[in-house]
Design a protein that fits this description.
heterodimer, A: alpha+beta, Ubiquitin-like (UB roll), 5-stranded mixed beta sheet, 2 helices, 29% strand, globular, B: alpha+beta, Aldehyde Oxidoreductase, domain 3, 5-stranded antiparallel beta sheet, elongated
């Protein structure tokens, strides 16, 4: 299936890209992160990161659907 | 809008007025300021990146939770984005309620949740000319939630 992945702040700087569309067998947000971490060594662990799907905050266990847009947020630091 | 993001200076007087209510005897305000140092580095300015579509939705949820949980009358939170100079207000939380106890608790809840749940990142620009994204290394290393220790 097809998934658009977007990177923000530190993740964008470290991967050198703000978004990419990939074709993969499908799975959870965590599985997608781990797959992308193999491509981009800067993406070390999702433990302190957050994920959103189609502009809604989501859990790493969320199973993705075809054409979902997945947002990978590095550790946040508001305030 | 109870939660909003601003790319211009926060109007503190307007934020206070937004929660004004004659049935309230307490107003608690928290302002987060840009300070000149962090972890041994001298800071010259700060840059905030905000992903608005999610930050605005999730920020409004935090305000709704505070109203529900603490029974306060009104709350607003405004967060800056873009480049900020020392002393500028980066974030403001205003809470009004009939009595002070719940206003203090709700204000603390809103700022704590804002710092840990919203897609907002800050880049510190040091006087050395170097700039760096700020993240909590302790959390990143431990992979735990922020509920277990306090940030400044």
């Amino acid at each position: 299936m097809k998934t658009k992945v977007r990177y923000f702040a530190l993740f964008r700087d470290q991967t050198g890209c703000s978004s990419e569309t990939i074709a993969w067998p499908g799975g959870s947000a965590a599985e997608l992160f781990q797959m992308m971490a193999e491509k981009h060594s800067a993406l070390k662990t999702e433990a302190a990161a957050l994920v959103a799907v189609n502009d809604e905050m989501a859990g790493w266990e969320t199973v993705l659907n075809d054409d979902d847009e997945v947002l990978f947020f590095p550790p946040v630091a508001g305030g | 809008m109870s939660f909003s993001v601003s790319d211009t200076a926060i109007d503190v007087a307007a934020a206070r007025k937004a929660v004004a209510d004659n049935s309230c005897g307490a107003l608690v305000v928290f302002e987060g300021w840009i300070r000149d140092h962090n972890e041994g580095q001298e800071v010259e300015r700060l840059e905030y990146e905000v992903y608005r579509p999610v930050a605005e939705k999730e920020g409004s949820r935090i305000i709704d939770e505070a109203i529900e949980r603490f029974g306060i009358s009104h709350a607003v939170c405004i967060h800056r984005e873009g480049l900020l100079e020392l002393g500028e207000v980066a974030v403001i939380v205003c809470v009004s309620s009939p009595h002070r106890g719940e206003a203090f608790d709700a204000c603390r809840y809103i700022i704590d949740q804002t710092k840990t749940r919203l897609p907002i990142w800050k880049k510190e620009h040091y006087i050395t000319g170097i700039s760096e994204w700020v993240s909590c290394e302790y959390c990143a290393a431990a992979g735990h939630s922020h509920g277990e220790h306090q940030h400044e």
